[in-house]
Design a protein that fits this description.
Helix content: over 70%
Radius of gyration: 18 Å
Structural class: mainly alpha
Number of strands: 0
CATH architecture of the largest domain: Orthogonal Bundle
Strand content: under 5%
Number of domains: 2
Largest sheet: none
CATH class of the largest domain: Mainly Alpha
Length: 176
């Protein structure tokens, strides 16, 4: 850690390093590749280290996850620009058939859920992951993604609808 005094290093270790697993998890879900997520999470940690002096307290997890998110989107823009241009069309994905609850009850299939999450555009996937898997509040998600809380809430709603639709579609092809 260049230009880090022992006090800065200790603060970084205490405040930021406990959230390394959260950083990797977010990168993994946004990029959908373990190897890419490892590389991007490592790059994000290096950036966090480089800019740690600009962190003036507050929620270190949200601060780190914002860096991870920005690093992921920079990586996606460079390596997979088409993924960022895909948006959800609600008219094409209207929910018909079983409800999300019946789908969940019918089968607790982690692999099916993972595949369904991976069909979401990155921006929807990120709000779901931050809320449901990382347990972030709406306020934290707004800070991490730099979007208003109202937009976080509407994005979560749309992401859930799209996820439910993907789960419903995947269950229709499954054998009873």
């Amino acid at each position: 850690m260049n230009d880090f005094g022992s006090e800065d290093r200790l603060r970084f270790e205490q405040l930021v390093l406990p959230h390394v697993d959260n950083a990797y998890n977010l990168a993994r879900w946004l990029l959908r590749s373990r190897a890419d997520a490892e590389d991007v999470a490592q790059e994000a940690l290096l950036r966090a280290c480089r800019f740690f002096r600009s962190f003036h307290g507050g929620d270190a997890r949200a601060w780190l996850l914002q860096i991870v998110r920005n690093t992921c989107y920079s990586w996606l823009e460079k390596n997979r620009p088409m993924e960022l241009s895909v948006e959800f069309d609600e008219e094409l994905h209207l929910q018909t058939g079983p409800t999300p609850e019946t789908i969940a009850i019918a089968g607790d299939d982690r692999e099916r859920l993972t595949r369904a999450l991976e069909t979401l555009p990155p921006r929807f996937r990120e709000v779901l992951i931050l809320r449901e898997l990382e347990g972030c509040s709406y306020k934290e998600i707004a800070a991490i993604t730099s979007i208003p809380i109202g937009t976080v809430m509407s994005s979560l709603s749309r992401a859930r609808r799209q996820l439910y639709s993907a789960l419903a579609n995947s269950s229709q092809g499954a054998c009873p």
